[in-house]
Amino acid sequence: MRQHVNPLSQFFQLPLSLPSKNLLFKESHYPIHLDIGSAKGEFLIELAKNYPEWNFVGFEIREPLVSLCEKKRKQLKLNNLKFLFCNVNVSLDEWLSDLDYGQLKRVSIQFPDPWFKRKHFKRRVLKTNLLNSIAKYMSKDGEIFIQSDILKLIESMISTIDQNRYFDRKGEGDFSLIDKNPYNVKTDRELFSLNKNLPIYRAMFIRNKLLYVN
Length: 214
Description:
- The protein has a single domain (25-207), classed as 3-Layer(aba) Sandwich (Rossmann fold).
- By secondary structure, it is of the alpha/beta class.
- Helix 4 runs parallel beside helix 5.
- The protein has helices at 21-24, 42-50, 63-76, 88-96, 128-137, 151-162, 188-195; strands at 32-36, 55-60, 81-85, 104-110, 138-148, 167-169, 201-207.
- It is globular, with a radius of gyration of 16 Å.
């Protein structure tokens, strides 16, 4: 399975009509945690087991991974969890518009593709339009949690969110980094980095009280 796909290719620029929350979940009124770039899905699977009164959605641009995750989810009979294939920078805003006001409580973006070459920076997942979509539909005091094992990438992600006036950094210090994963569930990449004694950089942002203005 390819580790990377080009999100700017014509195929991934086609907007997808994703199933609404009422079709995805029996208890569609539960608060929602979105994981952007859900990969093999183990992070959300563990959260869904631990928090049955939340709904979890994993968005992934690599369709074979979505199929794999959905197979695991069905085997475990986790009805508060779904994995969806899409390019979030193209299709997420329409899906979010179906949510009840303030239902979106948490968003996580963990170890996204770094796209090291400067000419490829535009392929990185965290963009202003994505943040604006999240801000539009997220409840006051909702969370965005980001982490990476690449310092330059986390600096870029923090800078992007800092420039968006709807989120405030939590914590203190040069980059307001936090020292642990707040959800006590680790991704595959996080476990790999910890086993190799590699540094992991994390930050949390809180949705402030400013009303969204389009």
